[in-house]
Predict the 3D structure of the following.
Amino acid sequence: MKNYSLPVWLHHIAIRQTGILNSLDALVGSQWLAAEKIRELQLSQLRRIVGYAGKNVPYYADLFRQIGLSNPEDIRTLDDITKIPVLTKAMIRENVDRLTAKRDDLFEYQTGGSTGIPLKFFCNRKFLYGDKPAANFRAYTHAGYRIGDPFGVVWGYDKDIPKHGPVKSFLRDHVYKHNCLLNSFTLTDATIGAFLERVRQKRPLFFKGYATSLAEVARFMTNNNVDLGYSVRAVFSEAERLDEFRREAIERAFRTKVFNYYGSREFGTIAVECQEHNGLHVNVEQLYAEIAEDGKVLVTSFLNLGTVFLRYEIGDNAEGALSEPCRCGRQSLRLQRILGRQSDNFITPDGTVVHGEYVTHLFYSSKAIEQFQMIQHGVTTFTLNVVVRDAETARNEIKVISSRLAEHFKSPLDIAVNIVPEIAKTRTGKRKFTVCEIKR
């Protein structure tokens, strides 16, 4: 019971829904495996998912025949994973049906990614509602969290509060119920102030959210000399790159350490800092992470049996990997620094801060737009650059998206639309899907 509170444990016993707790207990124990045991576990997991893909996923059945990978035992060491070609987002968009096993327990998921490319994929039930949340909760235990402990959450809600499945009541009743929630799509001094008042009442020991949104809350706290009146144990920065100046600002305001958390919709937890804050420990039990020669992060999921991701180019870059044991005692691989995923916030005419992820959500259901980039020049003037598959369908979709954005901004918007062959990269070689040119 050390990993979760008594009410959560009793709830699970009452409804015999112990999958997450069992997975969490196993993960909390396995994080202390010796390096050699980790390699043995990962090799076994890799062979298993390769064998599964070869038998159940048409795309890989054909690919393995072409490259002569006829037997999972052909994967003799972890380095043999390089026999499998890299999987890109474009490949998934073109082959998602052939990359997905035929199962009765699949759920459709979508992500916008760091490059503004909407992506559809499928997860099987056990991975989505058992393995994935267990790893998320294990990541938080690095700072002493137990399931059931309240969080202060600064997040965009419309896609991320669960809406179906067996875990819905558990998450709602025992995780979200006691949390303090702040919608990062509508950040104003008033909403941040109200959020902090709820925080003072409920006194959550942990906070999590987008790095840029947490920095907005920290800015408000610093500018208004806000003291929460109690000690916060940790803040988790998620979903985008954590710059050092934002880390410092958040730590000053909350008077605690920030833990950098690296995850994605495709995999859940990829890596997270421990209390030593010296690199991010990879979720080695559930996935295999590589850093290619050009710095691109490649991820292989061991446990998603829906859309199978082998050596998936997730769209981020990382700077170095640390293989020596960490001072915390864990011997898992650590990613030294995550360089990808940073989106600009937008500003509405009334001064509300809108996290860039809101725009990504608007493109989730698009069938004709392959990539996008939204640039805000003034409070009501924008340029939307899009790479499209079908121009006429894309124009109709853009009308709907523009209308929803204007509704959220509570103002008519002037949006210049450019259909382009590709989204231009920044000077650092990245593609940002939201850019704000307004100086604050």
Notes: Confidence is low (pLDDT under 50) at residues 12-16, 159-174. The chain is about 35% helix and 20% strand.
